[in-house]
Every structure is written in structure tokens, then in C-alpha cells.
Design brief:
The chain is an alpha+beta fold and 178 residues long. The protein is built from 2 helices and 10 strands.
Length: 178
Amino acid sequence: MPSIRFPARLRRNDVAACCAAAALVAAAALIVVIALPIGHARAADLVVRYDQSQLLRLPRPVDHVIIGNASIADVSVQAGNLLIVTGKTFGVTNIIALDAQKNIIQDQRVIVQRDDQRTVNLTKGAARQSYSCTPNCESQIVIGDETAFYDNATKQAAAKTKFSESSSEPAGTGASNQ
């Protein structure tokens, strides 16, 4: 068996230090893997962002859809085999798609998460206010925010929706013309 020869400038202490550093890196990597929360998404999970939608294409037409917890996600069927899954609140649920013979096409775990990439949270003690910054920061309706802030944002969103609906009605059908 050939022996390993180290250059003269590389001493045994240096080799020991390198081995110790490698052991520390390996131990840190193991700790990170062990410390990962169990609730993380798996590769087969459908991750949907809160108040956003994802498409789920199935191999054959769907006759019936069962939602484990309809307060977490909503589903609509388009074109027979295309499901639109919308995240309604944070959490984990599942969707079971059945064909006309009530055979399971797919049993899909759905995780609804918050989209934190463009979100800024302002925290004052225990109170939180959420803002969507794309690029200007606007208040965002997020469950768990401070009650007064949440109620104000909800009221503004409802007023905006009402205004949008009334301005999109054909002439002569609005409430002011009755």
C-alpha cells in the first residue's frame, strides 16, 4: 500500500486542522438536516401561495372533487381534467379527484403558504402589519395581522371591489339607474 507523502511545508498539525474542519462541516450539515421542520413540503406536494392559484392537470377527466378542508383551498374544474387550486388560508389539506366510476384519479396533498418574497412585515410588539411591495408597498390582507389594520385593509378592498364591479356593468344596469 503506497504511503501518502505531504509536502514539507504541510505539517501534521495542518492535516489535523483540516480533518477537524471537515468533521465540523459534516456535523453542521447533519444538524441542519436533522433540524429541518417535519412540515416542509415534499416533492409530490402541490404548494399554493395564499390568495393565488395553481393549475393541476390530471391524466383523465374528473367527475367529482373532494376537498379535505375547504377553508384552506378551493378547487374548480376546467376542461374536464384541469383543476384550478386556489389558496384561501394557510395550512395543509388534500384534494381527491374521482372519475365517473368513482375511481381515484389523484389524491393530492396541498400546502398553502404565504408568499414572502415581496412581503414586508411591520411588527410593533405583538402586532403585525403586512405589506405587499411590488414595487410600492400597499397594505395586504393577511390572517394574523393586527385586528384594526386587518379590518381597515378588508374595508378598503371591499370598497375597491364594489367600485370595480359597478364600473364594469353595461350602461343602464348600474344601481344609480334603477
